[in-house]
Amino acid sequence: MAPNEVPGETAGEIRGEARGETRRRASRYVVPVAVAGVAAATIGLVPALAASGDPDLPEITAQQLIEKIAASETQTLSGTFRVSTDLGLPALDGLASGLGGLGGGGEGSSTADPSQKLTELASGTHTLRLAADGPERQRLTLLDGSDEYSLIHNGDDVWAYDSKSNEVFHEKGAFEGPEAGQKELPATPKELADEVLRAAGDTTSITVDGTAKVAGRDAYQLVIKPKQAGSTVASVKIAVDAANGTPLKFTLSSVEGGKPVVDAGFTKVDFARPDASVFAFEVPKGAKVTEGAEEARKSEKLPEDFEKDFEKEFGGFGKGLNVIGEGWTTIAKLDTGAPAPKTDEAPKEIQGLLDSFGDKVTGKFGSGTLFKTKLVNALLTDDGKVYVGAVTKDALVDAANAGK
To answer: What burial class does residue 80 get, using C-beta atoms within 10 Å of its C-beta: 0-12 exposed, 13-18 middle, 19+ buried?
Structure first.
């Protein structure tokens, strides 16, 4: 066992209750949570960021480093953040226009709506400016050439502005306090770290693997790896500021190799309190303003017979959901109860999309189509069963064969 590795009985799936408990402590270290949220919206940091040489830091165990993250008091910062995502998907340029603008938002929707705009982080490389002053004030600016998109949270107000379209999206009271719904938490960082490690089980290796220089800061490298064969995840690496415990960089790598699936981190960072003017917002002259609450009310209004029609068409869908396996190799199995649609009967644009994503596979289960990315794969069998997980093609086929 490596000197910094967590023993088998305490290493494993870092998720569930312990992970939820960590998120609920956002009031103490809002910046790591905010950064993780940007990255998870699902995110690159060029290797040159660590090229100045690995710092010589005191040795630290994985448990001590998790305790350091949990004890972080960081609530203020400003800096530049680079985000890259590579799911291994085929190029989809022009597909939306070929399908009549699919995914472009409904009639009257705002181009400044964060739920639409931030999906851009799901592919490619992007540069962002970040600023935070506690749980009540944050600002994110997405830079895209000469255009900018800004998302500002200031107290009860959330503002979003798209300079390209000169549109503003506003929502009031969209953020609950970080303590809302909070359960009783571990009393100390050590107790929190102990709970995280206990929740892990024996499916994961958690180690400290050296040091790095990120955005000019000395950092430890926390590495999380599956011990189970069959997962598409090779490793998760988190660079943690050696001085204050703030995560500075996050890298998710696939067993397929190549570019990381997600690579996100600071290129510049300053932990001083940003000026209050950073979080102020005035509607630009001539900008179209969309009120989020009004849009939500419109979307909530459904046709009178919607529920009846939905039940008629999809009432049986999802009743056959099962979970296979555990840990990193968990697979969700869904029996739709209906044969898979024939792709040769679909519109030409849809056929092209399915062909780009899917591979025909066969086995004891019969035949089907495998839809693949570098992280999550799905097998749709011709008799209407669906197998989905962050697992390899072979793992999905084995599950389908066993379930036949």
So the answer is: middle
> In 3-state terms, the chain is what percent helix, strand and coil (to 5)?
25, 30, 40
Instruction: At 75, list the tokens.
Output: 């609530």
Over residues 126-179, the pLDDT tens digits come to 999 999 999 999 999 998 777 889 999 999 999 999 999 999 999 986 555 444
Both tokens assigned to 371:
């839809």
- In 10 A of CB 187, how many CB atoms? 8
Name the CATH code of domain 306-403 (choices 3.30.70, 3.40.1350, 3.30.310, 3.10.20). Answer: 3.30.310
Assign domain 8-293 to its CATH architecture.
Clam (2.50)
Nearest to 239 by CA among 225, 256, 260, 223: 223
Task: Tell me the two tokens of residue 247.
Answer: 């995560």
Contact 160, 62 (CB under 8 A): no
C-alpha atoms less than 13 angstroms from C-alpha of 3 in its C-beta half-sphere: 4
d(C-alpha 180, C-alpha 279), whole Å = 23
Of 241, 248, 203, 242, the C-alpha closest to 224 is 203
Give the pLDDT confidence of 199-257 residue by residue, as tens digits: 667 889 999 999 999 999 999 999 999 998 999 999 999 999 999 999 999 999 999 99
Residue type, 65: L
Cα–Cα distance, 43 to 80 (Å, whole number): 14
C-alpha of 4 from chain center: 27
229-246: b or e for each residue (b if 16 or more CB lie within 10 Å)?
A: ebbbbbbbbbbbbbebbb
Among left, alpha and beta (phi > 0; psi -120 to 50; other), residue 401 is alpha
